[in-house]
From TrEMBL:
UniProt entry keywords in alphabetical sequence: Signal
Species lineage: Bacteria, Pseudomonadati, Bacteroidota, Flavobacteriia, Flavobacteriales
A Pfam family assignment: Por_Secre_tail
Signal peptide residues on this chain, from the entry's feature table: 1-33
InterPro entries in the cross-refs: Secre_tail (IPR026444)
The name this protein goes by in its record: T9SS C-terminal target domain-containing protein
UniProt keyword Nucleus present: no
NCBIfam families the record matches: Por_Secre_tail (TIGR04183)
Length: 279
């Protein structure tokens, strides 16, 4: 009888210990897995923003409007963020937003809210100048991730991480719009200057631009054939643009006012974004 009692007590203790371990694991997963964001960056449809030491040049086409929020609305938990800036996209049709960073970034957190399927599924497509990106999230609802895009399946939204194997300096977000559109924003804390190790991978670029600062002329030299260039001013307006041939080109900047500009150069295999200074 005593042996049986000890056996039962031991079994109960083991079961209790298992329950404790299970609850601890469950608590740890629920505590650390959920993606959160304390606020969104003040990025406009067209303009320049400075976030955590990174200059962000934004340009847009199609149905994109500026929307300011005292709390960025989400349909998933949490219900809203404390503060932030967002853009209404797809209200009247297709849309595209191009973000250019003067320093390499990665793992940007994109917030989406108000998406639905009332007149067809909305989609959100992401591409970087480095190549294909991957999307992940543990805080979303009413949407599915399919490769480099997010597609609505019901009323939904969420917080999504946009990751690339190599850090990027340009991110393009686009979609077909519809269903009265939705809201999109970028988590401020996710826009960060990368460490020395991360930036080291960007040093061996195929394109060289010199001199900068410059008074009149800059030269673009590339180990690949050049295809085109675009130059944007501090407001996000395109001020110079041209198709290119060969692997070296001299550009006259004499018509530009002194200031900081972003030049986007397309080669056969990639797009490079650099900051240039006109004196």
């Amino acid at each position: 009888m005593m042996t049986k009692k000890i056996s039962i007590t031991k079994s109960a203790a083991e079961s209790f210990l298992f329950c404790i371990i299970f609850l601890l694991v469950l608590f740890a997963n629920s505590t650390h897995a959920q993606t959160v964001c304390s606020g969104t960056a003040g990025i406009l449809p067209n303009g320049v923003a400075y976030v955590n030491g990174v200059q962000v040049l934004s340009t847009s086409t199609g149905s994109v409007q500026n929307v300011g929020f005292t709390g960025f609305p989400l349909v998933c938990s949490p219900l809203s963020l404390g503060a932030g800036q967002g853009m209404a996209v797809g209200v009247t049709g297709s849309w595209s937003i191009n973000l250019i960073f003067d320093k390499p970034v990665n793992d940007l957190m994109v917030l989406i809210s108000g998406a639905d399927t009332s007149s067809g599924a909305e989609n959100f497509i992401f591409n970087s100048n480095i190549g294909t990106v991957s999307i992940s999230s543990d805080n979303y609802c009413g949407m599915v991730i399919a490769g480099n895009q997010i597609i609505t399946t019901a009323i939904g939204g969420g917080i999504y991480k946009i990751h690339s194997p190599i850090s990027y300096t340009q991110l393009t977000m686009s979609g077909g719009g519809g269903s009265d559109g939705s809201n999109i924003g970028i988590c401020s804390a996710s826009i960060n200057v990368l460490g020395v190790h991360d930036i080291a991978g960007m040093k061996d670029d195929i394109v060289d631009i010199f001199p900068t600062p410059t008074k009149d002329l800059i030269t673009i030299s590339s180990r690949e054939n050049l295809k085109s260039y675009n130059i944007f001013d501090a407001s996000g307006k395109m001020v110079l643009s041209s198709f290119l041939k060969g692997n070296k080109k001299e550009i006259d900047l004499s018509i530009l006012k002194p200031g900081n500009y972003i030049i986007t150069i397309e080669t056969e295999t990639k797009t490079i974004n650099e900051k240039i200074i006109k004196q």
